[in-house]
Amino acid sequence: MKEQVKKVVVIGGGITGLTTTYYLQKIINEQKLPMEVILLEATHKLGGKIQTHYQDGFVIEKGPDSFLERKTSAAELATDVGLGNKLVHNTAGKAYVLVKDQLHPMPTGAVMGIPTKIGPFLSTGLFSVQGKIRAMSDFVLPRSQSGGDQSLGHFFRRRLGDEVVENLVEPLLSGIYAGDIDQLSLMSTFPQFYRVEREHRSLIWGMKKTTPTQNRLNSKTQGKFLTLTGGLQTLVDAVEERIAPSSIIKGTKVEGIDHKGDGSYNLVLSNGENLQADSVVVALPHMALAELFPNTPYFQDIKEMQATSVATVAMAFDANDVEVTLDGTGFVVSRNSDYTITACTWTHKKWPHTTPDGKVLLRCYVGRASDEAVVDLSDVEIEKIVLDDLKVTMNIKAKPLFTVVTRWKNAMPQYTVGHKQRVEKMHQDVRMNLPGVFVTGSSFGGLGLPDCIDQGKQAVNDVLEYLKI
Ligand code: FAD
Q1: Taking 70 as the threshold, does the pLDDT of residue 199 lie above it?
Q2: What is the pLDDT of residue 215?
Q3: By three-state DSSP, how is residue 329 classified?
Q4: DSSP 263
Q5: Is the pTM of this model over 0.80?
Q6: Which helix or strand (DSSP H or E) is residue 291 part of?
């Protein structure tokens, strides 16, 4: 009798869904498992938020531009698909903070804004004397009594005081999530700081003890991030090339999922067809997930999760037209200052491979929690606002050769206080009531590219365990 082939459908062709499809298909082929995998993507292009724009020799990332080397799964995936020799580190260099109208170098030894070297912290112009004295009370303050989750703002303000938080910690930490640190969950974003306080009581002392010396001294040679010389789009393309074309369906949105009596699932597709599946991996942003199951209560909390809109603004110039006199790779902007941009990377310095000789590439962010209206302005208006902000810190003598504005509406999921518990509750409900469905991706277990890849790989294990093949 012919063995029955089990069908796994992966919904969403961002990096999470691509990872699941690629590694699952690899195992199916290597172990000759009686399974098939189909990836469904609503748009005509894979990669989701990974999008690289190529123009006049520039390599411009519209979304993510790199990933943390320390979290190894992204470099591993690149190597697995033959791009190991295209991985490149960022140039390590000074980063700055824009406060009022001045760029201040990040104090040497600051790790995510937390001082680990006292000399540079005391001599920086970033904080007032009172602000510095308040931060030093971290050495004597007791541990927090809070055993559960708390906001990043609550945690850091208590340990280091408002000024250090607002001028340094906030622009660094909230930039990653485009969020409000007084709402973001400590345990879902940076639980390591909670652990440092538990173990060492003082955050400054604990970070000094636990951070490798090389990181504290802001190593001059090699940065902590990696990207691909041809742009992150090449990772998407290489993964896609290694998945059987018959396993990828693009331009087809999943509009609903019904749990059938026999335990399988019926997927309703935007092309009017239906697809049956024995197991389903949903690798979608949380808003899209909730739409697929309108009549189940398990996604209620997830539906209410907020997401912030941002835009990236990349500007190409002739080198003669822009003076970036400072040595370094860019700056973040303090919330206390009256600017619309939240960060600017001197991309030609941080990632030299992206920019032809004799040119300059600047990449800025606009939009953040409770300040998102700018994202809806026209390209021309956004370009003007960004240029006006940049002129405070740089001598810009001519208009950009070209500008690429990319809007990311509701693209940054907000991991607010209690996120971990809500996600765990959702997984429990899904396990009990929708067996064989696995929910994964950036809205849930981490939004960095390596976190998404880890989650995509975990979904492979979950599917194999569920189907027990
Ligand atoms: P997505 O990329 O959102 O993919 C989901 C896919 O599902 C999309 O292709 C979508 O079209 C599809 N889809 C939606 N609904 C349906 C449906 N009903 N049926 C079928 N398909 C559907 N991370 C880093 O590590 N480093 C960075 O430098 C970095 N910078 C960032 C900058 C920006 C501007 C943004 C927005 C994010 C950044 N991130 C960064 C985060 C990272 O890019 C994302 O978390 C990650 O790419 C999300 O991948 P994903 O697969 O989970 O989701």
Answers
A1: yes
A2: 58
A3: coil
A4: S
A5: yes
A6: helix 286-292
Residue that is written with structure tokens 């609503």 in the block: 42
Pocket of ligand 1, beta carbon within 6 A? 11-17, 40-43, 48-50, 63-67, 253-254, 283-285, 288, 310, 312, 408, 411-412, 441-442, 447-449, 452
Place of tokens 């390596």: 450
Report which DSSP code applies to 168: I
| ipTM of the complex, rounded to two decimals | 0.99
Is residue 271 exposed (0-12), middle (13-18) or buried (19+ Cβ within 10 Å)?
A: exposed
Of 192, 88, 177, 441, the residue nearest 292 (C-alpha): 441
Beta bridge partners of 267: 257, 275
CA dihedral (181, 183, 186, 188) positive or negative: negative
Residues ≥6 apart with Cβ < 8 Å to 303: 286, 287, 290
Protein residue with its CA nearest to atom 24 in ligand 1: 448
Give the distance from CA 58 to its chain's centroid: 23
Name the helix (H) or strand (E) containing 343: strand 341-346
- Nearest in space to 37 (alpha carbons), one of 45, 29, 49, 48: 29
Which position has the higher pLDDT, 455 or 148? 455
pLDDT confidence tier of residue 371, bands split at 50, 70 and 90:
confident
pLDDT tens for each residue of 321-353:
998 878 899 999 998 888 999 999 999 999 999
